Amino acid sequence: MRTVRFHRGFDKCPDEIKCAIEAVAREPETKSIWLFGSRVNDCAGSKSDWDILVFRNDPCIAVPRRMAGLDVLRVSLSGDSLLEGMSESFVQSFARFEWSAINHETASYVGQKFTEVEGVRDASVPLVVR
Predict the structure, then answer these.
(1) Is residue 111 part of a domain?
(2) pLDDT at 12
(3) Domain interval for residue 16
(4) How many CB atoms lie within 10 A of CB 77?
(5) Other beta carbons within 10 Å of 37
(6) CA-to-CA distance for 47 and 103, rounded, in angstroms?
(7) Which of these, 39, 103, 121, 96, lies nearest to 83 by C-alpha position?
(8) Domain presence at residue 91
(9) CA 67/CA 64 separation, integer angstroms
(10) Residue 24 sits in a domain of what CATH number?
(11) Overall number of domains in the chain
(12) Cα separation, 42 vs 124, whole angstroms
């Protein structure tokens, strides 16, 4: 079994989130996991969820969302990315997040949020907000 070590943030996670992250870590195609987003950057609001970035050895395919409160962004070897729970029409290049390494533990990025759509979508409202 592989040992997974998180440099920062993992200790802040509730137990059910830790268990879900550990399950992701045990998946054979998982190469590495990064915690990111408002919860580990100490800028979370009352509705903030936990975010993990999972680099994997398999292609991005649509899979069900693992659990409420945890967003899992999967990144394939080809550089495609897809959030669990989203359809394959939302596959996009990971390069669009503009990640930049700061050191071996931290990186900066341009965040993105998908607009929730109910019924008919107003085309003037973007699907993705950066």
Answers:
(1) yes
(2) 79
(3) 10-129
(4) 13
(5) 20
(6) 29
(7) 96
(8) yes
(9) 9
(10) 3.30.460
(11) 1
(12) 32
Q: How far apart are the first and last CA of the chain?
A: 38
Q: Mark out the alpha helices in 2-71 (DSSP H runs).
A: 15-26
Residue 5 lies in a domain: no
Block residue for tokens 């759509």? 117
Does residue 2 lie within any of the structural domains?
A: no
> What's the CA gap between 70 and 51, in Å, rounded?
6
Task: Tell me how crowded residue 67 is: count the other CB atoms within 10 A of its CB.
Answer: 17
Percentage of the chain modeled with pLDDT above 70? 74
pLDDT, one tens digit per residue, over 39-95 is 877 778 888 889 899 999 999 999 999 999 999 999 999 999 999 999 999 999 988
Distance of CA 70 to the CA centre of its chain: 8
Strand 50-56 with 30-36, pairing: antiparallel
Distances in Å between the Cα of 18 and the Cα atoms of 22, 110, 119 are: 6, 25, 35
